[in-house]
Amino acid sequence: MDDKVSILMERYELGRLLGQGTFAKVHYARSIKTGQGVAIKVIDKEKVLRVGLIDQIKREISTMRLVRHPNIIHLYEVMATKTKIYFVMDFAKGGELFNKVSNGRLKEDVARRFFHQLINAVDFCHSRGVYHRDLKPENLLLDENENLKVSDFGLSALAESKRQDGLLHTTCGTPAYVAPEVINRKGYDGAKADIWSCGVILYVLLAGYLPFHDSNLMEMYRKIGKAEFKSPNWFPPDARRLLVRILDPNPHTRISIAKIRGNSWFRRGLNSKQSKTDTESKEVAPLDADADAASGSRENSGTSTEGKQDWVRPTNLNAFDIISLSAGFDLSNLFEEPSLKKETRFTSWQPASVVISKLEEVAERLRLKVKKKEKGLLKLEGLKEGRNGILSIDAEIFEVTPSFHLVEMKKSGGDTMEYRKVLKDGLRPGLQDIVWAWQGEQKPQQSEQQLQQPEQQDQEELVPQQLLQQDQEELVPQQLLQQDHLP
């Protein structure tokens, strides 16, 4: 009986309690299917409804879907029952950064490494229009390799939360880490307020105690408002200068993240090569194993498609493949916004060789290098690193009939928003000459030439129509519907 109680929706085996708050408990859990360890936040639905916090829960879900980064806790899925909401997230084996600092100050190199990772995560959040608003060591977790992971986006704000003056007005956060302009309640820039909190965290890492502290809360607010703090004598001179610029009580003159990155103390010991390797290993590794060997052999053979018929011949789709690709069976909208999807498909009446040539032409125009793999698979890669690694797009061609092809393009590495921009502004317009229809869009009228094709062609048309339909009824498990309709 106890075993049954510990199994959550036949997917996770709940384990020990990791932490507990007013409205939620966090348990260690293990995926029954993969054996992966995760943390599951169990929220009492009745309690959050009673105190009006359901909007905060929704905002946390939306925000965590937007900010997927190596230094941010990843939200895998959300499940719900009549009484509980479950967040399935990364398990941070190393616990809170706070526990590390509570034992005393950190060595300068260790503090700098954590600060690098914090700035990377916060900069990424800001690029997505997300402001954390409660940055503190208790909300910074460590994985088994002691890499920092930002967590707890319950008080975060999105860019659209700004009022007409372009500022945020909700006073929130932890007093010792909150910026002066937030305390003043006259509106504040979320990004600048987060930078202030990062400065307080840096001070704590280097000193082992808070820069602003007083048993009288109003006196502490006064010190924060005037940035009244002293740096210990063991602080390096350039670290002191950086802290003065971050903990500037005037948000208009406070240093930006771009200038923090250029600071001499910040850059000292910054191993950009290691940072790049870490990012790429998380984002691009699955397809890179034989990419270099494949690209090397193709570079020697030139870029012409002649003499490559074996490579050009794409994978054939059978009836089961076609059904699985049908839009009527696509449940991804229940878990992510359509604008954030990492893949898209289109159909074409052009031969595979023409599709490949067009993809190469558009990639060259967008300054993406092309690596070819077997059976109609191309890998398009950016030339320089973006916010979340090098952008990498896989384009795979499938043969539906000898004269009709499906092309699937999906992000395999790098930043999702950068991928969406390249897709919208570059790939879609550039490929319009060969596209018959994009999945999810109404198919165009057939051309006169296609209408005159043999009767067999008319029968084949039933296949692409099935691929692109959206009106098909779907039987969705109750659990998935509950995920989509969180209160």
UniProtKB/TrEMBL annotation:
<dbReference type="Pfam" id="PF00069">
    <property type="entry name" value="Pkinase"/>
</dbReference>
<dbReference type="InterPro" id="IPR004041">
    <property type="entry name" value="NAF_dom"/>
</dbReference>
<feature type="region of interest" description="Disordered">
    <location>
        <begin position="271"/>
        <end position="310"/>
    </location>
</feature>
<dbReference type="GO" id="GO:0007165">
    <property type="term" value="P:signal transduction"/>
</dbReference>
<dbReference type="InterPro" id="IPR000719">
    <property type="entry name" value="Prot_kinase_dom"/>
</dbReference>
<dbReference type="GO" id="GO:0004674">
    <property type="term" value="F:protein serine/threonine kinase activity"/>
</dbReference>
<dbReference type="InterPro" id="IPR008271">
    <property type="entry name" value="Ser/Thr_kinase_AS"/>
</dbReference>
<feature type="binding site">
    <location>
        <position position="41"/>
    </location>
    <ligand>
        <name>ATP</name>
    </ligand>
</feature>
<dbReference type="InterPro" id="IPR017441">
    <property type="entry name" value="Protein_kinase_ATP_BS"/>
</dbReference>
<feature type="region of interest" description="Disordered">
    <location>
        <begin position="441"/>
        <end position="468"/>
    </location>
</feature>
<dbReference type="GO" id="GO:0005524">
    <property type="term" value="F:ATP binding"/>
</dbReference>
<feature type="compositionally biased region" description="Basic and acidic residues">
    <location>
        <begin position="275"/>
        <end position="285"/>
    </location>
</feature>
<keyword id="KW-0418">Kinase</keyword>
<comment type="similarity">
    <text>Belongs to the protein kinase superfamily. CAMK Ser/Thr protein kinase family. SNF1 subfamily.</text>
</comment>
<feature type="domain" description="NAF">
    <location>
        <begin position="312"/>
        <end position="336"/>
    </location>
</feature>
<keyword id="KW-0808">Transferase</keyword>
<keyword id="KW-0547">Nucleotide-binding</keyword>
<feature type="domain" description="Protein kinase">
    <location>
        <begin position="12"/>
        <end position="266"/>
    </location>
</feature>
<keyword id="KW-0464">Manganese</keyword>
<dbReference type="InterPro" id="IPR018451">
    <property type="entry name" value="NAF/FISL_domain"/>
</dbReference>
<feature type="compositionally biased region" description="Polar residues">
    <location>
        <begin position="297"/>
        <end position="306"/>
    </location>
</feature>
<protein>
    <recommendedName>
        <fullName>non-specific serine/threonine protein kinase</fullName>
        <ecNumber>2.7.11.1</ecNumber>
    </recommendedName>
</protein>
<dbReference type="InterPro" id="IPR011009">
    <property type="entry name" value="Kinase-like_dom_sf"/>
</dbReference>
<keyword id="KW-0723">Serine/threonine-protein kinase</keyword>
<dbReference type="Pfam" id="PF03822">
    <property type="entry name" value="NAF"/>
</dbReference>
<keyword id="KW-0067">ATP-binding</keyword>
